[in-house]
Amino acid sequence: MADWPNMRRALEETNWGENLVGDAEEQARALTTKLLVLQQQHVPSRVYLSRLGDPAWFGFRCKAAAEAKHAAWLKYKRHPTQRNKALHKAACKRVVATCRWAKQRKQEDLKRKLCGPGVGAKTWWNLVMERQGAKHQDTIPPLLKPDGSTATSSWDKASLLAASFNNKMSVGDPERQAPHLPLETQSTITLVSVTAGQLERLLRAVEVGKATGGPDDVSPQLLKNWDGHLAVARSLQSGLRAAVLWRQGSVSPGPHQGLRVDGGPLLRFDGQVGAVTRQVSLRVSALRRVAGTLDPRGIITQYKKYKTQIRPCLEYGCLSWMSSAATPIQRFDEVQRRALRLAGYDAHQDNLPPDIPVTSLEHRRDVAALVVCHKTQVQGVPHLRRLGLPPRAAQRLTRAAASSELTVEVPFSNTWQDQRTYVAQTSRMWNAFTTTTPQVEDMSTQ
């Protein structure tokens, strides 16, 4: 059986930005190689020869069950014991069950094929004749070879037809130049744009029954079932270059199971914020069911569960979610207020004891942005180099302008959505932080 979950996980963990490099031919070759490797690992296949008298529904599983039954019969014939007799009887039952399943699947495939949109009169009558037994599996009559013998097997017929067609399609003078075609238009193609949506629609429209494996041996069923994972936008996987192109996303593993950052078709995270809010709300509801049975010490236990099970889900993707609108972000604050009320504290965090420090999620997002900016601007962490902000250009200072070597350039934004991005928002916070805080170079982010 095909291991589709591991196939999905392997496609999600593939770094397409590193694999798809070069021109279109190299990218297609790299994508084909990757799909063939995954298909060989997770989609088992086996080539078997079917006899001429086998029905259409007698496939690989039926043949394997029949071979197992024959092996059990030979073993029982050599050693007629009760155990071998029971094994042969069980093998016979498996053959009957497998053949019944194969017949039912053939009937369902036939119904699906007849109900499909591409069924014409020719296809209809061919299926009817095959159903009535008037159409045989071998439709090519015996062929005469050049040496006078007769080709009766399918392999000999195919080889003979291939040699005949090859001779007819060959060119007598291969060195002759092709005729020059006149130029009918002055337009030229400068850019071929293929979007992820177009690729996904084309893969979804593939008819598995008519599509062949092709020269790259990639199964059409694999392309049809995993269209959403193969239609990968390279802009989402080429890396985090937020200083130049802020409209990018990346899948980053987290310490908790199921934590990831997903960008929508418009590269917004509102859908991901809603999904995380629903997940965390269910966890808060589970704590609320047992809140009435806990003593004051159990309240502290609930707080610890909040810190380990709920709070990480609200803040692990804060740098990506900071570009979302205020309405989706406020849902996180509502979930946090619910969790604090379960622990016996009010929603505004006024009476929290010193041993239970809970900061607001907005404060956590600001701190995370400043920490990342400190690592890029001051410490120069190598793997965060692409998140670095450009320094402010040298200009004449005035009385109101602050002088600092760490100030960065604030990009110009026309919309509120651009002003909420990591580059625009972090650059403003970093300039204010470096202006009001002395000795930023000596600070530590630990």
Descriptive account of the structure:
By secondary structure, the protein is mainly alpha-helical. The protein folds into two domains: 129 residues, no CATH class; 198 residues, no CATH class.
What composes the largest sheet?
A: 2 strands, antiparallel
Tally of separate domains: 2
Strand content: under 5%
Shape descriptor reads extended
Structural class: mainly alpha
Question: What value does the average pLDDT take?
Answer: 73
- The poorly predicted ranges are 231-258
Number of helices: 17
**Helical percent range?**
40-55%
Q: How far from one another are the termini?
A: 49 Å
Instruction: Spell the H/E element sequence.
Output: HHHHHHEEHHHHHHHHHHH
DSSP strand count: 2
What does the radius of gyration come to?
33 Å
Please state how the strands of the largest beta sheet are arranged side by side.
1-2
Short description:
The protein has 446 residues and is an all-alpha fold. The chain folds into two domains: 4-132, no CATH class; 239-436, no CATH class. It is built from 17 helices and two strands.
